[in-house]
Amino acid sequence: MRFFLRKHAFAAGVILVGASLLGGQLAMAQNATPQARVVQAAQSDKMVALRGNVHPMARPANDRGILQDQQPVTRMRVLLQRSAEQETALQQLMADQLDAKSARFHAWLTPQEFGAQFGPADSDVQAEKLADRARIYRDEGQQRQNAN
Length: 148
What we know:
The chain is mainly alpha-helical. It has a domain at about 30-45 and about 80-145. It has helices at about 1-30, 85-100, 110-120, 120-145. Residues about 10-30 have low confidence and may be disordered.
């Protein structure tokens, strides 16, 4: 009878230690906030168009001429790349989630958790929004000057 009690006590201890280690890892991962990567204002002369990212309908045959100044641009995509540390952590998480021996096996993240761990820092998103607004106002100001 003592053997069974010791065996169950040992198993319970192992489970508690494992759970506390897993909880600590998950807490550390969830508390890790992305580092800000935008450290200066975007410069128009430094921007480049990425190959393969032009809509297939954007061809000379479909060109309808110059767009009117009043026509708003309704869609634009800005892609921000993960840091090397974020990408390494993401690849490790995905490998762990599929490894049955891992403590993070099938430990799926919510979209909010994924964004907090592997998305851009809030300050980077705000900086990009401000840069977009500045470009829009600058372009509108140039258009008004050209009209006069």
